[in-house]
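We keep the chain:
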Amino acid sequence: MNKAEFLEELKRRIQEYPVEETEKSMEYYAEMIDDRMEDGMSESEAVASLGAVEQIAEQIKCELPITTLVKQKTREKTKGKRMPAWAIVLLVIGFPLWGSILIFIFGMVLMFYALIWCFDIVLWSIVLSFGATALAGIVGFFVCLCKGAIGSALFYLGATLFTGGIGVFIFLGTFLTTKGICHGTKWCFLQIKKGLIGKEEA
């Protein structure tokens, strides 16, 4: 397969998406082929190194914004169909009910997500407080040491080691919590995308 054939096949597979997304993908892969040809590959080798066209098309689909996927799915489901007038009337009349339910569900999900991040922020605040306490203990240790107050200096040193040790454990736990929240958020978005793309396509 040469460059023109590859781009033509790719365009055929992604032509149902918005024009700007299609053009962006076409330009990107055309430049990739040109770059590999400049590195010494033949045209057919450069095209083959990109992989199968169908896999590239699926990758482009997975990387599309969720809003674009929603619009695409809506167009696919409503293509050639026209909603009856009575259904439109029922939707309009029932909007206060189903609209309120949707807003309530969205608000609950958003509130739950916000609470998770608030909990994470509290944990980081605790980490900072332990860090500040340990730093104050170090300062107190050196001040007492300079004044010759060995007992007070040892007290500050012990307090610094204690708060610093606890702070390290809390820091590790908080870091893992934050990382888990970020991974969980990414996983949720990927599941939403897979649901919009469809089980068979995903």
Observations:
- The CA atoms of residues 96 and 102 lie 10 Å apart.
- Helices lie at 3-14, 19-38, 43-50, 53-62, 66-78, 85-93, 95-147, 150-197.
